Amino acid sequence: MNFEQLSMLAPEFTMLVGGCLALLVGATSASQRAQLVSPLAFITIVAALLMTLSLGTPESAQVIPGLWLSSLTFYVRCVALVVGAIIVLVNWHQPTASERGEYMALILFSLLGVLLTASSNDLIVLFFSIELVSIPTYVLIGLSREDSRASESAVKYFFLGALSAAILAYGMSFLYGAAGTTLLQTSGDGASIAAWASHGVMSGTAIVGLLLILAGLAFKVAAVPLHVYVGDVYEGAASPITGLLGFVPKLAGFVALIQIFSACQWDVPDAAYWAIWAMAAATMTVGNVVALLQTNVKRMLAYSSVAHTGYMLVALLVGPMAGHGPMHNGVAALLFYIAVYGAMNLGLFAVLSAFARRGKPIETLDDLAGLATVSPLIGLATAVCSFSLMGLPPTAGFVGKLYVFSSAFSLGAEHAFQKPLIILAVIGVVNSAIGAAYYLRIVASVYIRESDESPTPVAGHPVRWGIALCSIPLLVLFVWPVGLLDTARQASVPTNAPVHSVKVVEASGITSAPNTTPPVLLNEMPFAAASRD
Amino acid sequence: MDLLTLIVFLPTLGAVACLVTPRQHIRMVALAVSFVTFVLSLTLFGTFWAGSGDVAIFGEHYGTLHETVRADWIVGDRFAIEYFLGVDGLSFPLIILTTLVSFLACLASWNFDSWKVNRGPRAYFILFLLLETGMLGVFVALDFFLFYIFWELMLLPMYFLIGVWGGPRREYAAIKFFLFTLGGSVLMLVALVAMYFFSDHAITQAMVEQGVDVIESGYRDGVGVTHGTFDMIELATNTAIQGYFGAKSTLFLGLRFAPLMFAFLFIGFAIKLPIVPLHTWLPDAHVESPTPISMILAGVLLKMGGYGFLRICYPIFPSGGYTLAFYVAMIGVVSIVYGALCAMAQTDFKRLVAYSSVSHMGFVLLGIAVMTKSGMQGAMFQMIAHGISSPMCFFLVGVIYERAHHREINRFGGLWLTMPKYGTMATIGFFAALGLPGLCGFIGEVWVLLGTFAARDMFPWAIPMAIVAASSVILTAGYILWLIQRVYLGREREEYKGFLDASPREMFVLVPLAVLCIALGVLPMQTVFNFTNGTLDLMLAQVLSGAGVG
Predict the structure, then answer these.
(1) Rounded to whole angstroms, how far apart are CA atoms B279 and A291?
(2) Helical ranges in A354-395 per DSSP H
(3) How many helices (H) and strands (E) are present in chain A, helices listed first?
(4) Could you give the 3-state DSSP secondary structure of residue B453?
(5) How far apart are CA A334 and CA A406, in angstroms?
(6) Which helix (H) or strand (E) holds B71?
(7) Residue A498 above 60 pLDDT?
(8) Residues near B230 by Cβ (< 8 Å), separated by ≥ 6?
(9) Geometric angle at alpha carbon A310, from A309 and A312, rounded to 5°
């Protein structure tokens, strides 16, 4: 380990230092200094983002034991930091001044956890990174507002989160038992899960381990049947922090799933495949149907977040093997979708936090009535975010849904799971029509309903900027999705080429950069021999 | 800039202009923009005026287009979505209809300030112009993906126009309209994606069969998956794609591809048409919409369903259309009869006109389903004719609603005496809807019925259906004559004595429509058939050969 290697972790160090500084500044008693915390957090994230961009896409390599930088790391860093900056904007004035230091520091630490998740190369590091994402969120919910419901949901979230962490660790121990190592991949010949997975058939132990890992992470991404907490937790937390809850743990969870699956060469055993299939179908359907029954906007968006997890699970199930065009590659579609989801979901929570009615924060559809007359621009932003969640042109949500579902359609006839995946995509498409019904109720409240007492704006400039930064990119990404797509596509190329394909490459005398070679693409060639049976 | 792009996006530019115009001039800007768009669309005639014969106008084979524009839009790794516009006999009359109805509807919105709404005109006219862009885009787009985008784009302004400026139950009506259309377009999206990947398989398979190396030919571009196409003309005319789509062995989820995709697309378009039993959004949307929006809804939006059948369903999945012809025709006949019966039972003036639309669009469906020349021609003519008569009827309802503030048919009476000019226009409009010979409604219905009889060799059920459809004309005459009797004839009523006759502005909207009602009825060849038949006949010939019956 030398300085050059460490410098590749500059974004992570920046976040760490920024978080510590925020704690220090916040601890001083002068309230003026507490006012410095939010700008400090914002600058930290922007600095980390600039460093990420200046470092560029790292060559896949292990920097220090347990950390492996790749194009996935780059993509996740960018997305997490951009959305993270907006999260800080939305939370600018949220907690009382005396607690703002801790509050912002925790947001920074949670984002740091996401960055580490994307670069971990060891089951243990992965576990710690995910806990680093989760533990600050438990506290943040409690700190976010002085309301007994916030404390209640913090406790609920904590106990269930601790349970899921235990399940996750238990599953990892099985995987370790089967593979004999915790290392996800190595560049040389050493033992790693990737090397182990490419050699043989998965044993029962490994399958149990994978299923348990899946269960543990299902809690983080809010997938059925481990979604039961979302309604209460999202409702209890203050709106700005709910925006964070809908995005940060989900991103971390999906990145961890991608890490583990790509270590397993995307050779998911049938049992796990069907488990995810059922989970995706149930998650989409339950999320949308339950959301349809809500009148509380926060609960509605909570279940909508469950539904979107379902769409992302579809893309995860397709995996990167279907090819590397954006309409074929499930992981690229997933990475694109989660970035778009982060913006549109956060945008709506930011709108909720920007208004109050009768001195209380906005919670129900009735509270939103007449918003467009009070503030036409924010009304428009609400409509853009809602239509994007609905998946309607001209928004990025449409492009995202298109990629997710078309990736599921793209598998060749020889793929064993072609039919189940098409069925899943059809279920998803039908679900997005169901989903439209409740998002439309939000738009209807904002634009059509009239109310005796309209909501009053309470937000400062940072929150307004946050709303603008969430909604405008949704329109831009519809017209010009190619930039983000290309980055997502690069990130979806498995961080290490499967060992057997590396061997093929080496045998043919080409030794350079096996990491950029896509995996064996036989099973996507419609008329090639079936490679999966 | 090319003509079609200009026509489609000029209203969008107008919408941007409306953003910055002072409030009192907004309607002026909107009117000017919609008028200029109308004039520009008329210049398309120049392209078609040169030839006089049917086929000569459109070239020798289906897919000859005018004014085409092609550019890459979203092109990435092995997939391409194009910005591809063009005009042929299917879209040309509908484009003119759209710009005309939009212009007249804009004029009908002139008295915006007297509507009892608390929202300003700015957003209204902006959405109105965006809606026009969406509608025109649907008719000129030839890339299926682009078509789908415009199709969805037009949904949003319509939702707000009904929802914000509508009547008392506007929220319900707007959401219902939105969800029905979205439900249909979701099925369309499935078909869109499936067609894309299946066309890819088809092209690759054809290459393999011809012994072309897919990698060396560059099509496959090294490793990975190729790309299919969204080009609607290519999908309909490429023999490899057509062969693969129509083959019995091509399955989608275990079902035959062509009939299944046909059904998906059919439901998507039929909701818009609308068909019984998926029509229930239509009366609600019409009753709650402001008058100009009703005019557009009836005049243009319903035609998108029919256009979708002619542009996508039948040319691309001829065998699907042939297999399912009975069910499609049956739905058409049921819509004709059920719509007419419902119209007869209405007491709300606007709801009656809405149900009459359901009945009239049933003829469109029947004409297309039987797959004969006169059937298709009649269906197309019926769309244009209904696009002229129904906005007129809705505007007539609007005129009287503004004065009386109610629409109860039974409370009216003797209006012709009070408002002679208005009464005359109303008679022309409603008689055109009735299908009186000499007016536009007649030609379309007769052509469809003739076409249905002509299909007797192909479909044994054609004659009974034609008889039922023909008899339903009695029902149509029944509800329209009864309507005219209750509203316009009879003794003058005390409460309506003070009503002013139609104003010059209102006459300006009504007279062009009335003139067209007569012109289309008297000169059907010169006004419509000469422009549409060439493309329709060529398309039909190809559809029949594709279905294996030509």
Answers:
(1) 27
(2) 365-368, 371-374, 376-390
(3) 22, 5
(4) helix
(5) 12
(6) strand B66-76
(7) no
(8) B80, B81, B82, B143, B144, B145, B146, B192, B196
(9) 65
User: Which residues in chain A have their CB less than 8 angstroms from residue B261's CB?
Assistant: none
Q: Average pLDDT for residues B262-276, to the nearest whole number?
A: 92
Q: Where are the beta strands (DSSP E) in A303-442?
A: 355-357, 360-361
Q: CA-nearest residue of chain B to A325?
A: B77
- pLDDT for A245-295, tens place per residue? 999 999 999 999 999 988 888 888 888 889 999 999 999 999 999 999 999
**In this predicted structure, what is the pLDDT of residue B366?**
95
With b meaning 16 or more CB within 10 Å and e meaning fewer, what string describes B243-253?
A: ebbbeeebebe
Q: Which residues partner with B69 through β-bridges?
A: B85
pTM, full prediction: 0.89
Q: Using alpha carbons, select from A308, A322, A519 the residue that is nearest to residue A418.
A: A322
Judged by DSSP in three states, A14 sits in helix
A422 → closest Cβ in B163, B186, B253: B253
Angstrom distance (rounded) from CA B531 to CA A287: 51
Q: Please count the CA atoms within 13 angstroms of the CA of B518 that sit on its side-chain side.
A: 8
| Secondary structure of residue B70 in the 3-state scheme | strand
SS percent in chain A: helix, strand, coil, step 5? 70, 5, 25
Enumerate the β-bridge partners of residue B75: B80
User: Which residues in chain B (164-203) have CB-CB distances under 8 A to chain A?
Assistant: 164, 170-171, 174-175, 178-179, 182-183, 186, 189-190, 193-194, 196-197, 201
- Tell me if B369 sits within 8 A of B328, measured CB to CB: yes
Specify the DSSP class assigned to residue A122: B
The amino acid at residue A226 is L
Of A413, A518, A527, the CB nearest to B208: A527
Per the CB < 8 Å rule, is B171 touching A430? no
- Domain residue ranges of chain B, discontinuous segments joined by +: 324-550
